[in-house]
Design goal:
Layout lengths: L13 H12 L7 E11 L2 E10 L5 H13 L5
Antiparallel strand pairs: 1-2
Helix pairs in contact: 1-2
Length: about 80
C-alpha cells in the first residue's frame, strides 16, 4: 500500500511548521524566546555586547529542512 502524498509540501511556512513540531516533540515551547547568541552593538559611549533572542523553534530549522528533504526523497510529499 502506498503512503498518502502530502500536497501541502510546497506551501510557504512548511519548514517553520515542521520546526515547531520538532520543538514540541522535544518538550519545549516553540514560541518561548531563547538566547541564540550575542551581538556587538555600537553605542554613543562605545561598543557593548547584547543577547540575541529568537523563538525556540528557530533552532530546529536545519533539522526541519533535512526532515522535509528525506520525506520528499521517499515520495511522501511532493
Amino acid at each position: 500500500m502506498r503512503a498518502k502524498v502530502c500536497k501541502r509540501a510546497n506551501t510557504p511556512g512548511l519548514g517553520a511548521d515542521v520546526a515547531r513540531a520538532l520543538c514540541v516533540a522535544d518538550g519545549s515551547d516553540p514560541e518561548a524566546m531563547i538566547e541564540v547568541g550575542m551581538d556587538l552593538v555600537d553605542e554613543a559611549g562605545g561598543e557593548r555586547y547584547h543577547d540575541v533572542v529568537a523563538p525556540a523553534w528557530t533552532t530546529y530549522t536545519s533539522e526541519a529542512r533535512r526532515f522535509i528533504a528525506a520525506a520528499r526523497a521517499m515520495g511522501l510529499i511532493e
